[in-house]
Design a protein that fits this description.
The chain has 9 helices and 15 strands. It is globular and about 70 Å long. Helices cover about 30% and strands about 20% of the residues. A 9-stranded mixed sheet has the order 1-2-3-4-9-12-13-14-15, with helices on both faces. It has a 4-stranded mixed sheet with strand order 6-7-5-8, covered by helices on one side. Strands 10-11 form a two-stranded antiparallel sheet. The chain has 2 domains: about 190 residues, no CATH class; about 90 residues, no CATH class. It is of the alpha/beta class and about 375 residues long.
């Protein structure tokens, strides 16, 4: 792809405002771009503004890339867009998917005034079991939505285990039966409704109120375990082959989007973890650090990565500013503007992770994420 000059702008609006008023929320099975193509809600308007502005910062050929792949693989491409815009705001002139000596095409060659780096972006799937469970719930929730009685809000605490290929008829009949109730009286209070099926229990919570979208107002939490550390480690290993023959220092940008992902997960995955030892009386006798992270593997070879750019829970509203994790064995020179980000490094002599605060305080504001706190009606 051609180089992305910051002075270029798109003349046409990619996502125009819909001509017919439609303030409904995104349907559960609806693609985000299909929702943005029809919805006139305040949130949809802001999301269109963010996407149109962000994509317009690139040449037309690159805009076409984002237009296409935001349809094809939304989650990954949305993160790539954020990383590309961040690099621009840090002062980089970007070249997209240029080939290295092995014919691999890392996402970005970022040319800064003082030096060049290669940046590969990856948004791994976290807590995949939750995604499967959520997908299986969708047709059941749609049935409940279509039977919400007048004047009531409905929360879902428990649902049967019904797979995508299983019949929903018994479930539908049970929902229709338990939700066949009159509107609430003035003194009505909340209560629960249950129904037992061979596949499990339906447990609903009702309270007086109404929703303009007539959708389930609340869902119970999903059962899962956090796999953030493992997914970060996997991302580091997975992308080595893609970038190992690059002609400039490589940073791997990783989006951690697990239910409880944090920068501490990056600490453990990249550097290692602290430990404590106690005697038989329960007294603390030793503390230390086990350098078991991906960046602390013992090798005489120069590392593939100069470091990693850690992102946590990045979405429409933005998220915490990224943290630069420096590879302990890398001697690569990085751009001064990148070094202004918050940094975490491993001090082998002290056996601890050292934190350096960010000197770049307005980076996320410059990206102009969706602003909902000044809006109304959502």
């Amino acid at each position: 792809m051609p180089r992305a000059k910051k002075t270029e702008r798109a003349k046409a609006i990619w996502l125009p405002e819909p001509s017919i008023k439609n303030d409904t929320h995104k349907n559960r099975l609806e693609h985000t771009l299909d929702w943005l193509g029809r919805s006139t809600s305040v949130k949809a308007t802001e999301c269109r503004r963010f996407l149109n502005e962000s994509v317009s910062k690139f040449p037309k050929e690159v805009q076409k890339y984002f237009h296409h792949y935001l349809h094809e693989r939304w989650h990954t491409t949305f993160f790539e867009l954020i990383v590309a815009r961040m690099l621009q705001e840090l002062g980089a002139d970007l070249a997209f998917e240029t080939s290295n000596s092995e014919g691999k095409r890392p996402d970005f060659a970022a040319n800064f005034p003082d030096c060049k780096i290669i940046v590969e972006a990856i948004a791994p799937t976290f807590n995949a079991s939750v995604g499967v469970e959520a997908k299986n719930r969708i047709p059941l929730l749609e049935i409940i939505d279509s039977n919400i009685p007048d004047g009531w809000l409905v929360g879902v605490w428990e649902l049967p285990k019904i797979g995508p290929a299983d019949s929903k008829q018994d479930f539908k009949r049970a929902v229709e039966r338990v939700l066949d109730i009159l509107p609430p009286t003035e003194d009505a209070t909340d209560f629960e409704l249950t129904a037992e099926l061979p596949s499990g229990v339906i447990r609903l919570h009702l309270w007086p109120g109404s929703s303009r979208n007539r959708r389930v107002a609340m869902e119970g939490v999903y059962t899962t375990f956090d796999n953030s550390e493992e997914r970060i480690r996997h991302a580091i290993r997975q992308k080595r082959r893609q970038v190992r023959s690059s002609d400039a220092p490589v940073l791997l940008a990783i989006q951690a989007s697990g239910i409880s992902s944090s920068f501490e997960d990056f600490d453990i995955a990249l550097f290692g973890r602290t430990y404590e030892s106690y005697d038989r009386h329960g007294a603390l006798v030793e503390t230390g650090f086990t350098p078991s992270g991906e960046f602390n593997n013992k090798s005489d070879k120069a590392p593939t990565y100069a470091g990693a750019l850690a992102f946590v829970d990045m979405g429409w509203l933005g998220g915490p500013a990224p943290v630069l994790y420096r590879h302990p064995r890398s001697s690569s020179v990085l751009p001064e503007s990148v070094l202004r980000l918050a940094q975490r490094t491993y001090d082998a002599k002290a056996g601890k992770i050292r934190n350096q605060p960010s000197a770049e305080h307005n980076l996320m504001q410059k990206l102009r994420f969706v602003q909902m706190e000044t809006k109304s009606g959502e």
